[in-house]
Amino acid sequence: MSTSETSSSSSSSDSTTPHSTPRTSTRIVLASRPHGEPTQDNFRTETVELPAPAELGESELLLETLYLSLDPYMRGRMSDAESYADPVAIGDPIVGATVSRVVASADEKFTQGDIVLSYGGWQTHSVEKSGHVRRLDADSGLPLSTALGVLGMPGFTAWAGMNNIGHPQEGETVVVAAATGPVGSMVGQIAKLHGARAVGIAGGPEKVAYLKELGFDAAIDHRADDFTEQLAEATPDGIDVYYENVGGKVWDAVLPRLNTYARVPVCGLVSGYNATDLPEGPDRSGQLMGTVLKKSLTIRGFIQAEFADQMGDFLEEMTPRVQDGSVKYREDVVEGLDNAVDAFVGMLNGKNFGKLVVKVAE
């Protein structure tokens, strides 16, 4: 099942048919590094020239962006702090996965009209090496945008973290925060496939209700005044796997509930992505390390790219489940590249409901 919501609308700029050759691309670039929450002032929209088909280099493809993925990791790439990936340079387009249409090709393996998964970023058109894209099956019966969500990087992130680090077992309790997002919703459904109890944490009654539609055994609103008490009630036997997407107060409530030998795949810490200073209060690292020691915890950070060789296994296992509806997903679709900044900032504040994508062209 998929649910698509349009949160805003505007005309897509520079759209083209597969039979026309665009001469320019509209793109959103990083104008300055955000300090705290990004604002419109940190971005700039500009138009750049594109090469003619005859000017493409060896194995290059001229692509038209159809869908753009918006993901929390992009906030980290806007900062120049040391991280697992290089920051976006000032004046460069914001990075991001895209579903794109081939407009022109200098590689005989790709022809005009092919649909590919690419990394074109926040722009209407891009030029990419054919070795950096993957052809998509346009006749799969699924929306093309699923290649950016449930069957893309977010879905694979959930699958890889659970299979390689979480190792959920039958009868265990798995807890995941940001549970209605593309990663968290998949984590809960994978837990159920392994015979575990799935407990989801989300923000607001509507999202909590949706978790029950997905088959979670329990759903908790982290905004509730008695959140900690609700978590304890939902995990009477403790927590065996906690898939970390958020950090902050959710982690503070989860830590005392972890069982001996619990596993914690650390995928993201979105609650702190806009932070500019260390959190207030006492240093509790001693408490954390003491708990890690006493309970023999496994806390393992990961980036999905380290498991990239497993992508084929993921697609083989999960594609038929998505096609037959046994694995469900939800998308939040925004119309128009010019709405990407507002949608991105809203996502960092939890305003999206499901996988957030921008529809750039038909």
Automatic annotation (TrEMBL):
Record domain Enoyl reductase (ER): where: 41-358
InterPro entries membership: ADH-like_C, ADH_N_2, ER, GroES-like_sf, MDR_fam, NAD(P)-bd_dom_sf
Domain of life: Bacteria
Basic and acidic residues: compositionally biased ranges: 34-43
UniProt-listed SUPFAM superfamilies: GroES-like, NAD(P)-binding Rossmann-fold domains
Keyword Secreted among UniProt keywords: no
Keywords for this protein: Oxidoreductase
A single GO molecular function term of this UniProt record: oxidoreductase activity, acting on the CH-CH group of donors, NAD or NADP as acceptor
Region (Disordered): 1-43
SMART domains from the UniProt entry: PKS_ER
CDD domains: PGDH
Record's compositionally biased regions (Low complexity): 1-26
Pfam family, one: ADH_zinc_N
PANTHER family, per database record: PROSTAGLANDIN REDUCTASE, PROSTAGLANDIN REDUCTASE 1
Name by which UniProt lists this protein: NADP-dependent oxidoreductase
Organism of this sequence: Corynebacterium falsenii
